[in-house]
C-alpha cells in the first residue's frame, strides 16, 4: 500500500505527521482539513456525527450541540440540544428541515426557518433519526427513529403525529438510510429493507462477521442510487440491488426482492463507505502490530478507492490519513459522509474533519510538476487550458526550461524555448541574455526565431561574434541558415575581415565572406572569392544573379575549375556571352578551346561552322577518336585541309574516309588493302560504294593474297558472281579454309534458290486466291433500278413501261447501257473503263 500525504497547509500542521513514502502513482483524491469555525469547535468539543447537504454541513457533538456550517467550516447557526452526546443529525433533500436525536432520548424534528415540528423525550437512548427525503414537501411529514424499536412517525389529517412500529425485538437500531420509498436499517442481527410504498419489509440480510461486537464495529449503509444499497460491516462489504418481482409469481411474497451482486472481504475494518461513479470509496480503521511490544495499536485510517467484482475487488488507490488523535480512536469513532452534488467526501473523527475531493487538472499538473514530469505537465495544460485555473502553459514551460538548465541540458532547454516562448520577444531576449550569462549562447543559437518574429539585430550579432571568436565552422553554419536581413551585414563583414587579417587563407572564413557579400548584393566580390577558392557554388551564383557580364574575362578560370559545368553554362547562355568571345578567350588554351567547340558541335553542327577548319587540328591533337565522327557529320569542313592534316599524321582511317568523300575511291581502297591490310574493311568499303570497277580492283589486288581470297569467298556471294573470282585463282595456290568457303558459297546459292522458289510459290498462291476472289465477285448479281442511267444517252436504264421487252447491257465495272446505245454492237468491254485503262470487263446482257 502506498501512503501519501494529501493535505493543504492546515492539514500539514497535524501533530501526528509521520514519514511518508512517495509513490510514482498519482493519487486519485486530494485532502484538506476543514478549518475556521470547525477548528474552534473541535478544540473544546468532539464530533459525534455529521450530515452533509450540498449547501451546508450539520455537525453534532459529544456535548449535545448541533452546528450548521458552510462548506468552508464557518459556523452559521448553533443549537443547544442536550448535555449529552448527539447521536444523529438528519436533513431532508431541500435542506429546510433537520432531525436530531441524542443519547438522553431527545428527538427533535424542526424547520430551520419555521422552528415548528416534533419534540419528544424517550425513556431510552435514540441512536438514529432519518427524515423522509421529501419531508418538507409531503403532507404526512414522515420520519423514522431508531432505539430499541424502529418507529415511523407521520402527521395525520388532524395534524397529529401517528406512530407505527416497523420493527422491534432484535436489539438497538444502529443505522438508518432512507432513499425514495426504500428504508434500510441495521441492528445486531443484520440489515433490513422496508418498502414504504407497499408498506412491506422486502429482505433481511444477515450479519456475516458475528465475532465482532456490533456496538464497536457499526454497520455502514449507503444508497448508491434508488435501488442499490452498499453495506459495510466489520470487514465485510456487500452490494445489493432491489429488483421487481415477476408479476406472474402467485406466491404471497413482497413485490420486490433483493439480489446481492457483489460480496467480498476487505483487509481492514469498515468505518464508512460511499459511491464514486462505478467505484466505491471505503474508509477503513487500521490496527498494526508494534514490533517492540507485539501489541496492536491504532494506525492512521485509510481511504481506499476500489472497483468491486462479484466476489472480490480491485484496489485503485489507497491513502493513509493523518487525522488528529487517530491513536486513541476506535472503529466506531470514524464515519464517512459524501455530497451527491459534488464528489466530496468528509472523514469525520472526534477531533478532526477532513475533506477529500477528486483531483482536477490543476492538481494533476501540480503532481506532475512535483515529480519533475514537465513534458507531461505541459501536455496536460495544453489539453485542458480552458479548465485550469492555478497554472498556465507559459509558467509550466519556463519552469521546465529552468529545470533543464539547472540539470545542465542546455540544448534541451534551448529547444523547448521555441515552443514555450512562442512570439514573446521580451521573453526571448531575456532567455538569450540568460544563456550568455551562463556561457551557453551556442546552445540557443539554432533555436532563435527568424521567421515572422525577429529579435533585435544586436541579439543575432552577439551570437555571431561568439561563434566567430571560437568556432569558424559554427559561424559559417549560422550565416548559411539565418536570413541575411536579421543582422547588420556590414558590421559582420568588418568583423570577418578583421579575422582574415590574422588568417588570410582560411577557406571557411573566405567562403562565409563570399556569402555575406552575396547577401549584400556585392556579387563581384563574392564571385572573385568563389573563383579563388574554386567553390562549387560559383556557377549557381552566376546563374542566380545573372553575372555573365562579370565572367567574360574569367572564362579560363571557370573552365579550369569545372569544364563540364562551365561549357554547359556558356552554351546555355550564348546570347549573353557569344561563341566568338569564348573562343577568343580560350585561344591560349587550345585544349579547353577544343572542349568548348566539341560540345558546341554536338549541340548544333552548324553554329560553329567557321571554326570547323580550326577544329580539325584540335581533334587531331587532343581527341582523335572523335575526329572521324566530326568529319562525317560536318558539312563545312574543308576536305583538302583535313586530308592534308590526316596524311601528315598518318591517320589512315580518316584519310580513307576523306578520299572516299572526295571521289577517289580506288585510292582509298588501295590504302585499305596496302596499308591497313584489312580485307573485311576493304569488302565493307566496296559494299558501301557498290561499284563494279571497285570490286574488280579489290579482286585484282587480292588474287595473289590467299587470306584476302578467303575473305572474298566468304563475303562477296551476294554482290559479285563468285565464279569470276574462282576462275582467276591460280592452280596450286594454297588458300586457307577453301573447302569451307566453297561450301558456304554453295549454301548461300542454295539459300538464294530456296528463297526464290518460296517467293514464287507465295506469289502464285496469292494470284490464284485473288483470281478466285475476282471470279466469285463477277458471278454475283447486279441490282438495276430506276435510279440507274444509261452511260451513253443518260436516260433511265429502265423504261417507263416495264411490261414491254427491253435489253440492257451491264458490265462488271457497274457501267450500264441500253443495248441499242452501245457504241459498237456486241462490244465485250466497257469503253469508259478501257479509256481509263482499268482493264477489261466482260458484259452481261439481260432482256
Automatic annotation (TrEMBL):
Entries under CDD domains matching the protein: RING-H2_Vps41
Keywords: Cytoplasmic vesicle, Endosome, Golgi apparatus, Lysosome, Metal-binding, Protein transport, Transport, Zinc, Zinc-finger
BP GO terms, sorted: cellular response to starvation; endosomal vesicle fusion; macroautophagy; protein targeting to vacuole
A molecular-function term among this protein's GO annotations: zinc ion binding
Region (Disordered): 1-28
Cellular compartments annotated: Endosome membrane; Late endosome membrane; Early endosome membrane; Lysosome membrane
Protein name: Vacuolar protein sorting-associated protein 41 homolog
Organism from which the protein derives: Scyliorhinus torazame (Cloudy catshark)
Taxonomic lineage of the native organism: Eukaryota, Metazoa, Chordata, Craniata, Vertebrata
Amino acid at each position: 500500500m502506498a501512503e501519501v500525504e494529501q493535505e493543504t497547509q492546515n492539514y500539514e500542521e497535524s501533530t501526528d505527521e509521520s514519514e511518508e513514502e512517495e509513490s510514482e502513482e498519482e493519487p486519485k483524491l486530494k485532502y484538506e482539513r476543514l478549518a475556521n469555525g470547525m477548528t474552534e469547535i473541535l478544540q473544546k468539543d468532539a464530533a459525534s456525527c455529521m450530515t452533509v447537504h450540498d449547501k451546508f454541513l450539520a455537525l453534532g457533538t459529544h456535548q449535545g450541540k448541533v452546528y450548521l456550517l458552510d462548506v468552508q467550516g464557518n459556523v452559521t447557526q448553533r443549537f443547544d440540544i442536550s448535555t449529552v452526546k448527539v447521536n444523529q443529525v438528519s436533513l431532508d433533500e431541500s435542506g429546510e428541515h433537520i432531525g436530531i436525536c441524542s443519547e438522553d432520548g431527545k428527538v427533535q424534528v424542526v424547520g430551520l426557518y419555521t422552528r415548528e415540528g416534533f419534540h419528544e423525550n424517550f425513556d431510552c437512548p435514540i441512536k438514529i433519526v432519518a427524515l423522509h427525503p421529501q419531508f418538507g414537501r409531503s403532507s404526512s411529514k414522515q420520519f423514522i427513529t431508531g432505539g430499541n424499536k424502529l418507529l415511523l412517525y407521520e402527521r395525520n389529517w388532524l395534524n397529529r403525529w401517528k406512530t407505527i412500529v416497523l420493527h422491534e425485538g432484535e436489539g438497538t437500531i444502529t443505522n438508518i438510510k432512507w432513499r425514495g420509498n426504500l428504508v434500510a436499517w441495521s441492528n445486531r442481527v443484520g440489515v433490513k429493507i422496508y418498502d414504504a410504498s407497499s408498506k412491506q419489509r422486502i429482505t433481511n440480510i444477515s450479519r456475516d462477521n458475528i465475532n465482532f461486537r456490533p456496538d464497536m464495529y457499526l454497520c455502514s449503509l449507503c444508497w448508491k442510487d434508488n435501488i442499490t444499497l452498499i453495506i459495510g460491516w466489520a470487514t465485510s462489504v456487500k452490494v445489493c440491488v432491489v429488483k421487481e418481482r415477476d408479476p406472474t409469481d402467485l406466491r404471497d411474497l413482497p413485490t420486490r426482492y433483493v439480489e446481492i451482486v457483489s460480496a467480498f472481504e476487505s483487509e481492514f475494518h469498515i468505518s464508512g463507505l460511499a459511491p464514486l461513479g462505478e467505484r466505491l470509496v471505503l474508509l477503513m480503521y487500521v490496527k498494526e502490530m508494534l514490533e517492540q511490544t507485539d501489541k496492536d495499536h491504532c494506525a492512521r485510517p485509510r481511504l481506499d478507492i476500489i472497483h468491486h467484482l462479484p466476489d472480490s475487488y480491485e484496489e485503485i488507490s489507497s491513502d493513509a490519513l493523518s487525522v488528529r488523535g487517530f491513536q486513541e480512536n476506535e472503529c466506531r469513532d470514524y464515519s464517512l459522509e459524501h455530497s451527491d452534488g459534488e464528489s466530496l467526501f468528509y472523514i469525520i473523527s472526534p477531533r478532526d474533519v477532513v475533506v477529500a475531493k477528486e483531483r482536477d487538472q490543476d492538481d494533476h499538473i501540480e503532481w506532475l510538476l512535483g515529480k519533475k514530469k514537465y513534458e507531461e505537465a505541459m501536455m496536460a495544460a495544453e489539453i485542458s487550458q480552458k479548465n485550469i485555473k492555478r497554472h498556465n502553459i507559459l509558467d509550466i514551460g519556463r519552469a521546465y526550461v529552468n529545470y533543464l538548465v539547472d540539470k545542465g541540458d542546455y540544448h534541451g532547454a534551448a529547444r523547448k524555448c521555441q515552443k514555450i516562448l512562442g512570439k514573446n520577444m521580451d521573453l526571448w531576449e531575456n532567455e538569450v541574455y540568460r544563456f550568455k550569462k551562463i556561457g551557453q549562447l551556442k546552445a540557443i543559437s539554432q533555436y532563435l526565431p527568424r521567421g515572422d518574429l525577429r529579435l533585435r539585430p544586436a541579439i543575432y550579432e552577439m551570437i555571431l561574434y561568439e561563434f566567430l571568436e571560437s568556432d569558424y565552422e559554427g559561424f559559417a553554419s549560422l550565416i548559411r541558415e539565418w536570413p541575411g536581413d536579421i543582422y547588420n551585414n556590414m558590421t559582420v563583414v568588418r568583423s570577418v575581415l578583421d579575422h582574415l587579417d590574422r588568417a588570410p587563407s582560411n577557406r571557411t572564413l573566405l567562403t562565409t565572406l563570399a556569402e555575406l557579400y552575396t547577401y549584400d548584393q556585392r556579387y563581384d566580390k563574392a564571385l572573385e572569392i568563389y573563383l579563388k577558392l574554386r567553390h562549387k557554388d560559383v556557377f549557381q551564383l552566376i546563374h542566380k544573379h545573372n553575372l555573365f557580364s562579370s565572367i567574360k574575362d574569367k572564362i579560363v578560370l571557370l573552365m579550369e575549375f569545372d569544364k563540364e559545368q562551365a561549357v554547359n553554362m556558356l552554351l546555355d547562355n550564348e546570347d549573353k556571352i557569344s561563341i566568338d568571345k569564348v573562343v577568343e578567350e580560350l585561344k591560349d588554351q587550345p585544349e579547353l578551346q577544343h572542349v568548348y567547340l566539341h560540345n558546341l558541335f554536338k549541340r548544333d553542327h552548324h553554329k560553329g561552322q567557321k571554326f570547323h577548319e580550326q577544329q580539325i587540328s584540335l581533334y587531331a591533337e587532343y581527341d582523335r577518336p572523335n575526329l572521324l565522327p566530326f568529319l562525317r557529320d560536318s558539312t563545312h569542313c574543308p576536305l583538302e585541309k583535313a586530308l592534308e592534316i590526316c596524311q601528315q599524321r598518318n591517320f589512315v582511317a580518316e584519310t580513307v574516309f576523306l578520299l572516299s568523300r572526295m571521289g577517289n575511291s580506288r585510292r582509298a581502297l588501295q590504302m585499305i588493302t596496302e596499308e591497313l591490310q584489312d580485307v573485311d574493311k576493304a569488302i565493307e568499303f566496296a559494299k558501301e560504294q557498290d561499284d563494279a570497277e571497285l570490286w574488280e580492283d579489290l579482286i585484282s589486288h587480292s588474287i595473289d593474297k590467299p587470306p584476302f581470297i578467303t575473305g572474298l569467298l566468304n563475303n562477296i556471294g551476294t554482290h559479285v558472281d563468285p565464279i569470276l573470282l574462282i576462275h582467276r585463282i591460280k592452280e596450286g595456290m594454297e588458300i586457307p579454309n577453301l573447302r569451307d568457303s566453297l561450301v558456304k558459297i554453295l549454301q548461300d546459292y542454295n539459300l538464294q534458290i530456296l528463297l526464290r522458289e518460296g517467293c514464287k510459290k507465295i506469289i502464285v498462291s496469292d494470284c490464284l486466291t485473288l483470281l478466285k476472289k475476282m471470279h466469285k465477285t463477277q458471278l454475283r448479281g447486279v441490282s438495276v433500278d430506276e435510279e440507274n442511267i444509261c452511260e451513253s444517252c443518260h436516260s433511265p436504264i429502265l423504261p417507263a413501261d416495264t411490261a414491254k421487252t427491253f435489253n440492257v447491257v451491264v458490265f462488271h465495272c457497274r457501267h450500264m447501257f441500253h443495248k441499242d446505245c452501245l457504241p459498237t454492237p456486241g462490244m465485250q468491254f466497257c469503253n469508259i473503263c478501257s479509256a481509263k485503262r482499268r482493264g477489261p470487263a466482260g458484259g452481261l446482257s439481260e432482256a
